[in-house]
Amino acid sequence: MVPVFYIFAALTIIAALSVILQRTPVYSALSLIVVLCSLAVLYVSLGAKFLAVIQVIVYAGAIMVLFVLVIMLLNAGRERHTEGSRLARWLGVPLLAAFLVEILSVIWNGLSSGAVAPPAPDAGPAAVGALLFRHYVLPFEVTSILILVAILGAVVLAKKQL
């Protein structure tokens, strides 16, 4: 099972890079579907079959249908190359460095402190929900705010084009 994990982990990373580097939004969305499906395979290889099914049904199914619908609704074609702003040039590298430091510190603290153990592979939705709402409430709420900001940004971008 270990080679399957490494193969699909590499596929996930390559497809995630493809999401970022594609110039056409439809190809980027298709690459994101590959990422989500390969993550489902990783969940199965780790023994979390419930999360794998939810990953495919909710994310690769429903969310990606919504993304493709929005892409088609906005009639997004190829991206045009534009010059970045001065603010983006000056703040981009420091913010990227701060982000990488934060990610590495979270990984380091999680490995050294023995973070909250995930539910057993045989655990059902109740164990996943209890873990999510007892130990990971703040990240769950921050994610919901991030999704709200993304929706507002999409509305603002769509409104400017009309």
Account of the 3D structure:
The chain has helices spanning 2-21, 25-45, 49-74, 86-113, 125-135, 137-161. The longest helix has 28 residues, at 86-113. 8% of the residues are buried. The protein is mostly helical. It is globular and about 50 Å long. The chain has two domains: 1-77, Up-down Bundle (Four Helix Bundle (Hemerythrin (Met), subunit A)), CATH 1.20.120; 123-162. Helix 1 (2-21) runs antiparallel to helix 2 (25-45) and helix 2 packs antiparallel against helix 3 (49-74).
DSSP strand tally = 0
Give the percentage of residues in beta strands. Answer: under 5%
The assigned structural class equals mainly alpha
What name is given to the CATH topology of the largest domain? Four Helix Bundle (Hemerythrin (Met), subunit A)
- CATH-scheme architecture of the largest domain: Up-down Bundle
Number of contiguous helices? 6
List low-pLDDT spans: none
Write down the overall geometry: globular
Mean pLDDT: 79
Distance between the termini: 51 Å
Main sheet attributes: strand count, strand direction, barrel closure? none
Helix content: over 70%
Within CATH, the superfamily of the largest domain carries the name NADH-ubiquinone/plastoquinone oxidoreductase chain 6, subunit NuoJ
Order of helices and strands: HHHHHH
The CATH top-level class label of the largest domain: Mainly Alpha
- Rg, rounded, reads 19 Å
Number of domains: 2
Short structural description:
It is built from six helices and no strands.
Key structural traits:
mainly alpha, 2 domains, 6 helices, single chain, 162 residues, Four Helix Bundle (Hemerythrin (Met), subunit A), 81% helix
